[in-house]
């Protein structure tokens, strides 16, 4: 299998899983292992293609971004609160990412950690879905400062591969009383600074090891993840509206258990 074909396949995995509560990083690690490639070899690639999926959010929600931008120019409180809440939620990831970067990098090479995190995360989703008491919040600007801080702290759990950044933020928000749709939107928009920052940091740290071919592979994965994510986000919201997050929880449990069996048989 050529490296460019691998880049395409991993781009598809990234595009499908980035905004689902199933852990895109975990799936990329398992996919690399499944295809017989060293997960550590593709660790930087897996992170660097994430902004491709993030660009899909910019395209799909361009009207929201434009409205917020115009609101900031007019100093409207709703737009100010929108940006403030996302920045507040982003700060914990910056602090912990810089403080524990090496430890996080080491976890990106451990497929067993991914498998167990998938299972535990699936159980956590079922618990939150069953017991969370949510209220209808008027969009991201309606989320309180205290809730934003806590959502940002919960997002940091996703530094463990397999936990799922989107899953942690969505379930964390719902556990704090935020309704399902607003929690999903908060997760989508929070991904922009979080994943862009992680990509810039990884590319900088590993700049000496990135070749022209490496950048070519990243470009292919970026484009593929962008195209796939465009289709997946709307489908995800439709599924969540009708069935909640339980289908993703059961998928995580089955996938994690299957991965443990497969890893144990190698």
From TrEMBL:
| Anything else known | Bacitracin is thought to be involved in the inhibition of peptidoglycan synthesis by sequestering undecaprenyl diphosphate, thereby reducing the pool of lipid carrier available.
- Name its cellular compartments: Cell membrane
- The residue ranges crossing the membrane are 39-62, 82-101, 113-132, 186-204, 216-239, 245-265
**Topology of this chain in the membrane:** Multi-pass membrane protein
Question: Which EC number(s) does the record attach to this protein?
Answer: 3.6.1.27
The identity of this protein, by name, is Undecaprenyl-diphosphatase
- Record's InterPro entries? UppP
Q: What class of enzyme is it?
A: hydrolase
Swiss-Prot/TrEMBL keywords: Antibiotic resistance, Cell membrane, Cell shape, Cell wall biogenesis/degradation, Hydrolase, Membrane, Peptidoglycan synthesis, Transmembrane, Transmembrane helix
Which organism's genome codes for this protein? Sphingomonas gei
According to its UniProt record, which reaction does this protein catalyse? di-trans,octa-cis-undecaprenyl diphosphate + H2O = di-trans,octa-cis-undecaprenyl phosphate + phosphate + H(+)
Gene Ontology MF: a single term: undecaprenyl-diphosphatase activity
Per the UniProt entry, the signal peptide is none
Q: What does this protein do?
A: Catalyzes the dephosphorylation of undecaprenyl diphosphate (UPP). Confers resistance to bacitracin.
One GO biological process term: regulation of cell shape
Q: Family per UniProt? A: Belongs to the UppP family.
Q: Where mainly found?
A: membrane
Record has Cell membrane as a keyword: yes
Organism phylogeny: Bacteria, Pseudomonadati, Pseudomonadota, Alphaproteobacteria, Sphingomonadales
């Amino acid at each position: 299998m050529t490296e460019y074909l691998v880049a395409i396949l991993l781009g598809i995995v990234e595009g499908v899983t980035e905004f689902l509560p199933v852990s895109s990083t975990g799936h990329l690690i398992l996919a690399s292992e499944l295809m017989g490639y060293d997960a550590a070899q593709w660790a930087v690639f897996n992170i660097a293609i994430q902004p491709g999926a993030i660009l899909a959010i910019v395209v799909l929600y361009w009207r929201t971004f434009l409205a917020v931008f115009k609101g900031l120019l007019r100093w409207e409180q709703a737009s100010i609160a929108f940006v403030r809440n996302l920045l507040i939620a982003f700060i914990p990831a910056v602090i912990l990412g810089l403080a524990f970067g090496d430890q996080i990098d080491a976890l990106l090479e451990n497929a067993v950690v991914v498998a167990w995190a998938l299972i535990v995360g699936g159980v956590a989703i079922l618990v939150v879905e069953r017991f969370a008491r949510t209220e209808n919040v008027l969009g991201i600007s309606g989320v309180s400062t205290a809730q934003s801080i806590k959502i940002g702290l919960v997002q940091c759990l996703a530094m463990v591969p397999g936990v799922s950044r989107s899953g942690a933020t969505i379930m964390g928000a719902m556990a704090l009383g935020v309704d399902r749709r607003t929690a999903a939107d908060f997760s989508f928009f929070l991904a922009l600074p979080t994943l862009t920052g992680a990509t810039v940091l990884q590319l900088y740290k590993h700049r000496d090891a990135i070749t022209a071919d490496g950048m070519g592979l990243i470009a292919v994965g970026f484009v593929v993840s962008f195209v796939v994510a465009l289709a997946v986000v709307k489908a995800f919201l439709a599924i969540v509206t009708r069935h909640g997050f339980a289908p993703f929880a059961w998928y995580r449990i089955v996938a994690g258990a299957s991965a443990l069996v497969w890893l144990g048989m190698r």
